[in-house]
Every structure is written in C-alpha cells, then in structure tokens.
Amino acid sequence: MALVPFDDRDGWIWFDGEFVPWREAKTHVLTHALHYGSSVFEGERMYGGEIFKLTEHSERLARSAELLDFTLPYSVSEIDQACRDTCARMGMEDAYIRPVAYLGPEQTSVSALNNKVHVAIAVWDWPSYFDPEVKKKGIRLEWAKWRRPDPLTAPTTAKAAGLYMICTMSKNAAERRGFSDAMMLDWRGYVAEATGANVFFVQDGVIHTPDVTHILNGITRQTVIDLAQARGIEVVVRHIRPEELSTFSECFLTGSAAEVTPVQLIGEYTFTPGDISLGLMDDYGKLVRRIG
C-alpha cells in the first residue's frame, strides 16, 4: 500500500484558532521547536462521535506545556471544543486526534522568552496501532537499547516531543528486526514502558505494573486499572526488575493508540494472552464504544 505523506492530504487543520486547508498548515524551518524540542502533544481517539477522556487529555497538554516553561494561549475548555470542532469539520466520528503546542521562530536560540506559543489540532483515520491479526495473538517486543531518563535530567512526566526521539530510535530498531515494538527500562534498570504505551503483567491472577512516578502516567493506563479493579482484580504498582518477567504468565500494553494490546514476547521472555488481558481488552473496547 502506497504511503500517503501527512503534508499532502485533503482536509482542514485547526491552527491558532482558525481552520486552514490541510496542505497550508505550515511553520518556518527556524521554528524553535524544530531545533530545541520545545513542543508538547497529545494522542486521543474519537469513538462513535465522542472523544474518549477529552478533558483529561487537554489538561495534560496544558500541564506538559507548563513543565516545558510555556503557557497555552487557550483554556482547557477551548482546546476541548477545538478538538470537537476539528472532528466535525473533517466529518469524522471515529478518528485519531493530535493536538500539538510549540514555540515559534521569533528566537532561534536556547533562550525562548520572546517566542509565540502555537497550537494546532489535526485528526485522521487510524483504525489500529498494531496489525489486528497480530494483536489477537500478542505482539512481540525486543529490549530497547535506550533507557527512559532520570527525572533530574528531563521533564519525564510531560508528553514532550523531545522525549520521544529515543522511542523512535528504539521502535525503528525493533521493526527492522521483525518485532512490533521495544520495551524500555528506566535509568535505574527497572522495567518502564514500551515506546508509546504503558505495560502490565499478570502473576497468579494479580496484575503488576511499573511505578510511573517518573514516566508518563497514561490516561488509558488509569482507565484499565479502574476496569481491572471493577472486575475484582488486584493491581499492584511497583518497581519491576527485568528478570522478574520469567514469573509472569500474561502481559499487555495500554495507550490511546495501542488501546489494550496483548504481548506474547519481550526479549527472552514469553507470555500467553489469557483471561485477564483478553478480558480487559474486551472491557476497554466496550467502554470506549459505549456498549452495554
């Protein structure tokens, strides 16, 4: 299937408070964000005309901007409405939504006190992050070469564009070797997350998931914890050493793009998608589509 470049599509993008034709939503090559990573973003999904956890995403966008030392020029409620309006303008009821906020080209230097904050929102069709047939069996991951950084070296709880470069490098390396994704450790050597999703493990009917004090606490992660607890399943949040993976029977990833995705392999460790991971995948699907 031919790749359709993202800069050459039909439609509209919400850009600094107004709609512009998709192909005209451009910024200058000396934009601060392009050179210094001063950009934050969100990834959201609309199901059946409703954006799931929209306000939580808009609030996180604002928090991420503040962590990078800039303030959005729009309120959370204004961002919420702009996301809805963009989906409506594109005529979509099932879509992926990408709000992004970044510093412009007024200064191209480390200093950015005079740079304007820009906000854009684009939506497009993105049915499944992983191949649906592969997802049913569980995806395969390798260990990433790169580690999530020490929170004293970077704003690790922000959804900041610059923090994703090591994710891109890790996922590219994994895909070249036939894997779907890569599992990352944190700077101390504990299991952290996949390149764009949080991770859960199952041991004797109990779910274990890494502490996210210093990484992104995914909105889908929080939702799945609630779903598990509603099923009466205990969820333990703790540091997890890589060698502990040999003691877990099931594994799955969560994220707005990944939704709930079972895992069959991480490096040398194997898992079998079972009642808990498949049940939560089903529960999440029913919740976001408002079934039952």
Please explain how this structure is put together:
By secondary structure, the chain is of the alpha+beta class. The protein folds into two domains: 12-124, Aminotransferase class 4, branched-chain amino acid transferase, N-terminal domain (D-amino Acid Aminotransferase, Chain A, domain 1, 2-Layer Sandwich), CATH 3.30.470.10; 132-289, D-amino Acid Aminotransferase, Chain A, domain 2. 26% of the residues lie in helices and 27% in strands. The protein contains seven helices and 16 strands. Strands 8, 9, 10, 11, 12, 13, 14, 15 and 16 form a nine-stranded mixed β-sheet that branches. Strands 1, 2, 3, 4, 5, 6 and 7 form a seven-stranded antiparallel β-sheet that branches. α2 crosses α3 and α6 (219-230) packs across α7. The mean pLDDT is 96. It comes from Brevundimonas subvibrioides. GO terms for molecular function: L-isoleucine-2-oxoglutarate transaminase activity; L-leucine-2-oxoglutarate transaminase activity; L-valine-2-oxoglutarate transaminase activity. One of its GO terms (biological process) is L-valine biosynthetic process. InterPro entries: Aminotrans_IV, Aminotrans_IV_CS, Aminotransferase-like, B_amino_transI, BCAT-like_C, BCAT-like_N, Class-IV_PLP-Dep_Aminotrnsfr.
